[in-house]
Structure formats: structure tokens, C-alpha cells
What we know:
The chain is an all-alpha fold. It contains nine helices and no strands. Helix 7 crosses helix 9 (187-199). 38% of the residues are buried.
Amino acid sequence: MGLLAAALGGTPIRAQDAPTQQRNAVAAMQESLAKQRASVQKQVEQTRTDGFFILPRPEGLGSPPVSGAQASCDPLPPAEVDSLIGQAAMHQGVDQDLLRTVMKMESGFHPCAVSEKGAMGLMQLMPATAEQLGVQDPFNPSQNVDAGARFLKDLLTRYGGDLFRALGAYNAGPSRVDAAGGVPAFPETLNYIQQILSSLPIKP
Length: 204
């Protein structure tokens, strides 16, 4: 279920009410994103005053991995990225813009990216997560992206559609979010969430 569908809550809509319902759902989603962006920005500003380093926002399709992953291969061509995202988003019911932004943040679209902690591939799946999701080859773009989309969907479901906590769990792990009762105040995680939320398009 995508962000818009989640906002609609799966409630049946009469044909004549659909445009109004959709406009209201989109407005509610955008208001929620704006509040989450503001909350993250406030927390990031606090980390700046404490002397933490904040990464710059990545630009361009060929951006290097932002999450600390190293890659010895070229980024995938835009057409292949579009195809992978479209298939995974449709299969797992995840918003395409969210999936694309997380992928860019995680690996810079490099399918061979590996982080210092062992996260692998386009969506930077940790070995235990990849195994749990039944991924046979974490460097296979299709398997990796589909599993990453499923993981995002599971996290959104787990946290009742709270994108802030879902992204925090994708970066820091669900156990840390659960233990903190919210997003843990790790500079890397706060920066990660801020960059993703600020990169998501504002839809009319």
C-alpha cells in the first residue's frame, strides 16, 4: 500500500467522492511530511550545536553512496533504476518516490555497494535482514530492491505509517527505535531522515 493509499486507509470510495477524497489524502500526507521535516530539522540543528558533522545533500543520479557504503561499480542507468523501482513499488505497495530516495541515499544506485557494517547492494540490506527476507543474492538488483521495498513496507506497517520512525528503523534498526520509544538521537540517523524527507517531492 503506497503513502496515498495508506492515507486513505483502504476505505471504499464512491466514484463521485474520489477526487475530493484523494485531494484531502494528499493534503494530509503533505502536512504530515512537512511536520516531520520540521521535527528532523530541529533535531539536526541541535546536533550541529553539539559539534556533529552533517553530510551535504546528495545531488545527481551518479552520486556516491551517502550512508558510508563503498562501491567499485558504476551506478545503474536511469532506465534500469526506473524499471526496478516500478516493479518493486507495484509488487510491494510502496511509494515509488520514497523507494527511489532511500535507494539513492543508501547506495547512490551502485548495485555492488557494501558498507563498513556489511550492508549490501542497492538498498543496503544487512546480512540478517537479507536472510530473513529470503534474498538469495543480495547483489542481484531485482532481489535487493524488492526485498528493500518489502522491508520498508513492513516498517511502515509496524509503526502505523509513521515515516519518521520507519526511516529511523531502516537506518538504525527497529530494535533501537523500539528501545528509544522513537527515533534515537544519533546524528547519522537524524541526518539520514532529514535528507530523505527533504528530497521527497512535494506533490500538488
